[in-house]
Here is the input.
Amino acid sequence: MTVWDDLQGQAPVVEQLRRAAAEGQPTHAWIFTGPPGSGRSNAARAFAAALLCEQADPAERGCGECRACRTALAGSHADVSSVTTEKVTISIEEARELVKKAQDKPSTGRWRVMIVEDADRMQERSTNVLLKAIEEPPPRTIWLLCAPSPGDVLVTIRSRCRPVGLRLPPVDDVAELLVRRDGIDPEVAMGAARAAQSHIGIAKRLATDEGARARREKIVRLPLSLRSVSGAMKAAADLVALAEAEASSSFEQRDAAEKAALLASLGAPETGTLPPSMRSQVKRLEEDQIRRAKRSKNDYFDRALTDLLSFYRDALVLSLDSGTDLVNESLRPELEDFASRNTAEVILARMEEINDVRRRLVTTNVAPLLAIEAMAVSLL
Here is the structure.
């Protein structure tokens, strides 16, 4: 096993990173780009592990067996620092802390590796903090930035980074990975990989979580139930309620545990009113948790709408008789009937309605229920 084994269908990228890890002086800043599910952060972590690998032969670095490889992949290596966010944006304080860490010399390895998993979630002020550090990095520091596309990062940053472009792996490769790595039944793995549209993380969740599969099935079948305005409104309300319930269940216990740990670390009294200094820290934590919940809901809405989009994508494939494999093969009879009753132009218009809502939920403060209700009515 090597650090590259999970980078399914990314042979050119693996070769590029292998050669760079074997170099004595690799480029000091890299930007990993690719669509969601392409494995940007996995590629960055694999590269970090290869850079720090303890193998004496440069050609063998990234062995996956030495302590440096294992700890780098696990996120516990002393010379690998990373920042990711479960909030809407990476704050300027988080960016400054990362820049500060970048000044430290490596403690055990050849390099200090700084990974920014959500570089596209940095506001301009935060990015400007990072720019100086990337322009003039310490001699043993390497920056690895991850973003969906080069355009999601300021040109002043990406012009100073070596690009690594990833793509979604083929469905067969994702299914093979689930079977080999996670012990998933081959038939279940193939169905999950196809439903996830090659997104490895979502494919694993669908393969291992029956509830997730049931929720997705309900979303994908939504167009089949849109026969009236009242039905569309109900379908939209169900979709929003599902997203909010998913977010709440994901973070309720975690939020409570974080608050309890904070109070314990502050030495807070078990009963009575908290001192003002403690109340301010608890308030900051609660504000962070609210921002995290907002991102979780936005991410779930986007995934739900992507699943909904797959229904129309399959209908378009059948309408054009392109011969492309269907994402929702189990719904082929229903999809064939839908495609026979709608032209390709109508199907494309409905796909654009869904994409428009996806953009609005990300870029504006529109109420999700109102946006999704309007979309559901437009799909009638």
In short: The two ends are 51 Å apart (CA to CA).
